Amino acid sequence: MERFVVARADEIAPGERKLVSVRGRDVVVFNVDGEYFALLDRCPHQGGSLCKGEQFGLVESDGPGLYRYDRNGQIIRCPWHGWEFDLRTGKSRVDPKRTWVKSYPSHVEHGAQVVDGPYVAETFEVKLDDDYVVIEA
């Protein structure tokens, strides 16, 4: 599997998202409290842009009058028809066995390990000699 550097981590603030292109496909990258998720930016229903959708969590209940709000920001709703998808898996909230959006593994890596720039600095040995800075070229 190929790897693609799509953004610096600080370019996508917590609670925000960024639309990027990977192999000619639009992919939306979400930052949920420092955890990054990436989905194809196309709802499988009719192609709506998930990047423009509303992000929210889950309201779950164990019985009447009991509820809890969980997984804040980990669900995306298509802006066209309201289809909902789990950012972690891409699976539909309604029919997870048959409907999903392509998800991509994503994580943060230290810059020096990921991006080697095209520039190589010329270096010189530096010595201190009786309070004079000397370089050898």
Structural write-up:
This protein has a single domain (9-109), classed as 3-layer Sandwich (Rieske Iron-sulfur Protein). It contains 1 helix and 9 strands; from the N terminus they run βββββββαββ. It has one helix spanning 111-114; strands at residues 17-22, 25-32, 35-40, 54-63, 66-77, 84-86, 103-104, 125-129, 132-136. The chain has a 4-stranded antiparallel beta sheet with strand order 1-2-3-7, with no helix packed on it. Strand 8 (125-129) and strand 9 (132-136) form a beta hairpin. The model is unreliable at 133-137 (pLDDT under 50).
Nutshell version of this structure?
This protein is mostly beta strands. Helices cover 3% and strands 42% of the residues.
CATH class: Mainly Beta
Supply Rg.
Answer: 23 Å
Secondary structure category: mainly beta
**CATH topology descriptor:** Rieske Iron-sulfur Protein
What's the story with the biggest beta sheet?
4 strands, antiparallel
In total, how many domains does the architecture comprise? 1
Mean pLDDT: 85
What is the CATH superfamily label? Rieske [2Fe-2S] iron-sulphur domain
Architecture, according to CATH? Answer: 3-layer Sandwich
Give the strand order of the largest sheet, numbering strands 1, 2, ... along the chain: 1-2-3-7
Measured by DSSP, the beta-strand proportion falls in 35-45%
| Distance N to C terminus | 44 Å
Helix content: under 10%
Number of strands: 9
Q: Globular, elongated, flat, extended or rod-shaped: what is the shape?
A: elongated
Low-confidence stretches: 133-137
Order of helices and strands: EEEEEEEHEE
